[in-house]
Amino acid sequence: GESVGLHLPTLSVQEGDNSIINCAYSNSASDYFIWYKQESGKGPQFIIDIRSNMDKRQGQRVTVLLNKTVKHLSLQIAATQPGDSAVYFCAENGGGYNKLIFGAGTRLAVHP
Amino acid sequence: EPEVTQTPSHQVTQMGQEVILRCVPISNHLYFYWYRQILGQKVEFLVSFYNNEISEKSEIFDDQFSVERPDGSNFTLKIRSTKLEDSAMYFCASSDTGGGTDTQYFGPGTRLTVL
Fold first, then answer.
1. Which of A46, A66, B59, B102 is deepest in the core (most CB within 10 A)?
2. Alpha-carbon torsion angle A38, A52, B55, B12, nearest 10
3. Would residue A26 be called left, alpha or beta, if left means φ above 0 and alpha means ψ between -120 and 50 degrees?
4. Between residues 37 and 56 of chain B, which touch chain A (CB distance below 8 Å)?
């Protein structure tokens, strides 16, 4: 079946360190992937996206890597700040459908 | 910066009552969505809407649910007879285009509590 899987771990990092959040997806038809950040009590906030014809995309302090061979997606955050503390979700489109399939989320805790 | 807005932020209702959750998508967007998130769980797709009709819906979106775009700005989700298990955060989203490769922007959500 289609799924984007994340066990719900907590990643604890020191302020200023780099963070890497990982995601596995199972639908090989997915051709669009997004990372969202969700702070407590708020809606998912778009961070960065990537299409399947790319394997890397960079934004401001964030980089998304896509490995289609092993169906793996990662989000790298450089110089992590306390404001980065949130739950991060990866999502996939399941191959062109008008819906997103979300993973379970990873909590990022940034310590000063 | 344009954003999706939702009202109310919190809705408390009795089981069996009807609720309407309201959303104002980003003004030039054409595709609209509802998702829900049960406390502590992942975000789940409910329905997508384009050109005044449902384009896709999930198994969760049964006959108790309906969506409507009553005017040029609002997009609503109605639950006809709420159940305890409908308690969740409900998020509206919109995108400029569809086809599954356009960024969906989410609203802040409505917390629905069914007693």
1. A66
2. -10
3. alpha
4. 41-45, 48, 50, 55-56
Are A65 and A56 a contacting pair, CB within 8 Å? yes
Structure tokens at A42: 């708020």
Q: Which residue of B37, B43, B58 to mutate against A (max A Cβ within 10 Å)?
A: B43
| pLDDT tens per residue across span A35-86 | 999 998 889 999 999 999 999 999 999 999 999 999 999 999 999 999 999 9
Amino acid letter for position A65: L
* Chain A nearest C-alpha distance from B81 (Å): 25
Quickly count: other Cβ atoms within 10 Å of residue A82's Cβ. Answer: 10
